[in-house]
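Supplementary Methods, section 5.1.

A reviewer requested that the exact input to the structure prediction be made available. We therefore reproduce it here, unchanged from the version used in the analyses.
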Amino acid sequence: MTTTLKQRLHADLTTAIKGRDELRSATLRLTLTAITKEEVAGKQARELSDDEVLKVIAREEKKRREAAEAFELGGRKASAERELAEGEVLQAYLPKQLDDAELSGIVAAAIKESGAEGPRAMGAVMKIVGPKVAGLAEGGRVAAEVKKQLLS
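The structure derived from this sequence is encoded token-by-token as follows.
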């Protein structure tokens, strides 16, 4: 039987606790709590698929990044560094993000495929690009690239 991503998180949490790795264990605990919360949300409790677990991890990682920016702006450098460190722990579980050149190529191909022109066609292009970059690039980054290419 293959281990699920959630099982891997649990195993890594146990290892972190035994190794007295406070940062890692705290981060994994919070992430597993978010996953459990997601599983019991709605009318019926259910087990999340690995893809759904990845979405939760990505959401948690994004929260850490945004919190780090807020702490940085507020002059709380230690808190910002802690959030960034937690984000790095979570990034290890996420697929490698597309770099700008890869994203640009995918968007250009989608624009060509859809024959889209001008900013009004953004929705059509996003429909094509979305599934191709799911989990590999953040929505805001994708939208910015689509907008940039449609306007140029």
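The chain is about 75% helix and 0% strand. These observations are discussed further in the main text.
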